Amino acid sequence: MAMGVGMSEEGMRPVTELSRTEAVAEWADLVQAVLAANQAYHRDDAPMISDADYDRMKRRLAALEAAFPDIEAAMNQQSPTSMVGAAPAEGFGKVAHRLRMLSLENAFSDEEVTEFDERVRRFLGLHDAVAYTAEPKIDGLSLSLRYEAGRLVQAATRGDGEIGENVTENARTIHDIPQSLTSAPAVLEVRGEVYMSHADFAALNQRQVAAGEKTFANPRNAAAGSLRQLDAGITANRPLRFFAYAWGEVSDPLATTQAAAIARLKALGFQTNPLTMLCAGPEEMLAHYREIESQRATLGYDIDGVVYKVNDLALQARLGFRSTTPRWAIAHKFPAELAWTELLGIDIQVGRTGALSPVARLQPVTVGGVVVSNATLHNEDYIAGRDSKGNPIRPDENGVGKDICVGDWVQVYRAGDVIPKVADVDLDRRKIGVEPYVFPQVCPECGSSAHREPGDSVRRCTGGLICPAQAVERLKHFVSRNAFDIEGLGAKQVEMFFKDTRLPVKTPADIFTLAERDAANPLQKLKNRDGFGDVSTTKLFAAIEAKRTIPLDRLLFSLGIRHVGEVAAGLLARHYSNWPVFEASITHATPGTPEWADLTAIDGVGTVMAQSLVEAFQNPAERAAIDALVAQLQVQPVVARGAVDSPVAGKTVVFTGTLEKMTRAEAKARAEALGAKVAGSVSAKTDLVIAGPGAGSKAKDAERLGVALIDEDAWLRLIGE
Length: 721
Ligand code: IVH
Fold this sequence. Notes:
This protein is α+β, with helices and mostly antiparallel strands. It has 6 domains: 2-94, no CATH class; 106-333, DNA ligase/mRNA capping enzyme (D-amino Acid Aminotransferase, Chain A, domain 1); 338-429, CATH 2.40.50.140; 464-547, Orthogonal Bundle (DNA polymerase, domain 1), CATH 1.10.150; 551-636, 5' to 3' exonuclease, C-terminal subdomain (DNA polymerase, domain 1, Orthogonal Bundle); 652-718, BRCT domain (Rossmann fold, 3-Layer(aba) Sandwich). It has 26 helices and 24 strands. It has a 5-stranded mixed beta sheet. Helix 1 (20-42) packs antiparallel against helix 2 and helix 20 (579-588) packs across helix 22 (607-618). It starts with 19 loop residues before the first helix and ends with a helix. The structure holds 2-(butylsulfanyl)adenosine. Residues 102-104, 135, 137-138, 142, 158, 193, 245-246, 307, 326, 329, 331 line the site of 2-(butylsulfanyl)adenosine (IVH).
């Protein structure tokens, strides 16, 4: 019998008689009970309650929701009544992380770990030992779980670190992830790794084979594929696990040390890795690394290294972050995996900046659980057996670098996520009569000559935008995730439109005229083509339209100018703030001009990058493409970081002389965190010079230019320390 609003079912109070508070309390309990039952049924194949009881609970939930329609929104939690089997109509929603999700710097040797410790102590100006935690680096995918008032309200993937995907419903099906916490801070974001055990991975692949579905290459792919299912019902049937190892926003600190914070997460009900250990310094860290490495094969899940983190959270805070990685942590990776196979051929790929990259076509071989059939050969010197200075690489017994020929037996090397590379060659197995490889001197894509600049190991096509390979690679970069990120317009679609004769897209500007050109063409509309259709065409045009407004830093990164990566784009955007100022300055910035001095005075902008940027803006073809693009856009200005409430936000400061209270690196990082720009030299644009003992010419420059000059104590008072 279906139960309508206000009707009662065997002894339950009619929902119409409940106060709002009573209804909310009952609803929350029922949601937990239904979710737990779902999990028992879907995940563990072990139902806890009868079908009849389950149905009764769901009916009661529906009745409560009918009587109090805003209950879901008020509790910020989706009800199971609207969840089961109901896949969202399109991709996942986006979630902006309140605190960025970072990645880790890598170390590949004991020395690099020791250097990391030295760097940490140098930055902090400490001579004494610093303690670190050491724990396995889980090979899965990171997830951020947000709890409010003890309830799980959101789960998001890392995405680009700033914006991830909302996978809340999927995360709710993971057994290791508590739905609610007792005695947790009011706001708590728990971060960790979703992974799949070896046994569960093997069983899943067996089920996939039996069902005629695709199998997964490794447990990490299986975990990622399972978490990112639009239908949470599928995720529920995939045995995912979760280790907590970090946190994001918290309303009250979890603890004062990393080790205690992890212990607190464990006490709250999370799985934390049992191999996490507190180490007094590098010696103990490396010993624990060997211990974890020795257990690697029997852990039952994939790990790819050991993560070290400064234990004292106050020191972590002082160390802070670089653009995408913390200064207080490092991943010590396990050595790469190797295999031998035959080199079938060498292809030349032409990249976005014209670089000719040789790619090895290999007889497929399994390297550390992944089938590899392509690997990089880096550049022509690498194939010839020498480095960029002419020194031998892969030396034979006579110290002569071994070259690589098609038909050779080569060693393939794979470390984590990096592209596999050809590392070595077995000359004993070289066939008779093989020819040395001759590197092309012209671009295989456009026939333009391919040049090597002195000191550069890379040969580059000189065709610029007339080279179809460069043009299409630039377009792919333009639409990529950290650039314009246009939904429905990925590398595949870009290739298609690039070759298209009816609606060609040759430059970024063409993307923004697609809809208009399609409308102007009464015949052969995009929507009538294979692979498109009404809905996907409308969506594509809407997705393009949505990106007509773009922040300056993203635009600059998207242009794909050599040496101008994401970090540089951010620096430039924050320095010039808006497009007209940027454009006017760069157009006039040739060495010797004030614009050039201004550009190269930006901390982090060197002459190589400046030259590359200026060349792009002064090359007529490039410039025409940029202008045509910008004419299609509204470029949003970028405000200096941390502009909030800081007396130094937006100010350009220069440190000089010896600082006594903190190291130069720390002072710079603190200033930047407060929104100041730190420059290397004093100019008329400098707002403030902080001079310690021994300050020389910069202090004099400040006096000459009338720039305010203060000492370290005054600086600390100014920033409120
Ligand atoms: S800490 C701010 N600890 O490795 C530091 N990360 O290569 C945040 N990972 O994005 C990360 N095991 O997905 C940390 N024990 C561990 C980890 C771990 C795996 C992943 C994580 C991160 C990636 C960086």
